[in-house]
Design goal:
202 residues, alpha/beta, Rossmann fold, globular
Length: 202
């Protein structure tokens, strides 16, 4: 997501720095300055937050599945809480966090890790936008397109309508639009952006 978001924000005139592991600098889009550090250790990059307005937290386990419950705690949850704590100390004006739609009938460990970060964020006092997608369609993630007719039907049945909308599919483009919109419209307090609003973002 970050590799797609950086060029979009650069095209809109935003200046950015991005946290990368040593040796991965060349993977970063040219429109962004690298900061070397460890996402699991906030102290490794806290010094570089001075003067930054917005922090976007995108770190997480790739291709989430129920088999990765331990990784969700060790990577998703830890990196999120570290980011929130250092952003608070650095005086970040706006924190953007990609969480997950919930409640849901699956991916309980993933939801628990992301919800723990939401709880930490709510308690931090930071101004924050929390985005809650369920599944993001994009390159390598196209099989759920087959589910679209079932979603269409579920959204028209009163007993399943709310769940189908909350756990709806969003595209990469819609997520990028929602993230860029969050950057350009910082909130006061905490704003939660659910799937219908992600789909409508520009």
């Amino acid at each position: 997501m970050g590799s797609r978001l950086i060029p979009l924000l650069a095209a809109r005139g935003h200046e950015m720095v991005a946290l990368v592991r040593p040796g991965s600098e060349d993977k970063l889009p040219a429109a962004c300055s690298p900061v070397l550090g460890d996402a699991l250790e906030g102290a490794s990059y806290e010094q570089y937050l001075a003067g930054c307005h917005t922090f976007i937290q995108l770190v997480g386990v790739s291709h989430p599945s129920p088999a990765k419950a331990k990784e969700f705690i060790e990577i998703d949850q830890r990196s999120g809480i570290e980011a929130i704590r250092v952003a608070k100390r650095a005086g970040i004006a706006h924190f953007i966090y990609v969480s997950v739609a919930h409640p849901a009938p699956a991916m309980h460990a993933y939801i628990a890790a992301r919800t723990a970060c939401e709880t930490e964020l709510q308690a931090s006092g930071l101004n924050a936008t929390i985005l809650r997608p369920w599944y993001v369609l994009g390159p390598g993630h196209r099989w759920p397109y087959a589910l679209i007719p079932f979603y269409w039907l579920a959204e028209r049945i009163p007993s399943t309508r709310e769940g189908a909308r909350r756990l709806g599919l969003v595209t990469v483009e819609q997520m990028l639009g929602a993230l860029a919109g969050a950057v350009e419209h910082p909130v006061s307090g905490v704003s939660v952006v659910e799937v219908p609003a992600i789909r409508a973002a520009r």
